[in-house]
Specification:
The chain is an alpha/beta fold. Helix content is 33%, strand content 17%. The protein has a five-stranded parallel beta sheet, with helices on one face.
């Protein structure tokens, strides 16, 4: 094996080394056992150790999920669909949900870290949630799901600001028309400060 292959292998396993919990040891043993069995199966493809990406947390009796994101997505999607709006603005929500939303209405997605896509009905705009690129009172339908509570922590390149969440709410409010529909979700149901800055 070339040196570069060893390097790639180490980089792919580094998260396991850092987060090596006792419960993961038998899972890793099972993973490598499955690899050995796979190599001897008829028509098995050649797999190098540098191609390993152990999914040791996937073998579970049920599929784990984040209830906040799951239920808010279903509820918000149904509300927007029922409203029959012709266009909608989303600020910083989960991009898979935004992509799905673009199948029922035209969506403009604003994020400090924009992504490229050619999906029809989806416009991507680079923008800061504290300075949204729209005129005041110009947005009729807007969502911002589990974003506001992260603002001001610097995780995504935003500036540090202890008033980040409050300033986010103020900024969003300035852009609605008199007939606005606004859906904002936050996980901060109680007073609890958790610093998530990187």
């Amino acid at each position: 094996m070339k040196l570069i292959d060893y390097y790639k292998s180490v980089m792919k396993h580094i998260h396991l080394i850092i987060d090596l919990k006792t419960r993961n040891i038998p899972r890793l043993i099972k993973f490598y056992g499955s690899y050995k069995k796979y190599r001897h199966l008829t028509n098995s493809e050649e797999v190098n150790i540098s191609d390993f990406y152990p999914g040791i947390d996937d073998d579970t009796p049920t599929t784990p999920f984040d209830a906040h994101y799951f239920y808010q997505g279903v509820w918000t999607f149904s509300k927007i669909k029922r409203s029959e709006v012709k266009s909608h603005v989303d600020v910083g929500s989960e991009i898979r949900w935004v992509g799905l939303l673009s199948t029922i209405t035209n969506v403009t997605f604003v994020d400090i870290r924009p992504f490229k896509t050619d999906i029809k009905g989806l416009i991507i705009k680079k923008g800061n949630i504290l300075n949204i690129p729209f005129e005041d009172n110009s947005v009729d339908s807007l969502s911002c799901l589990h974003v506001g509570e992260h603002i001001g922590l610097g995780r995504c390149g935003d500036r540090l600001d202890p008033e980040g969440t409050k300033n986010t709410c103020r900024e969003l409010q300035t852009h609605f028309s008199s007939q606005w529909k606004f859906i904002l979700f936050s996980s901060r149901w109680k007073t609890e400060n958790i610093f998530q800055c990187t």
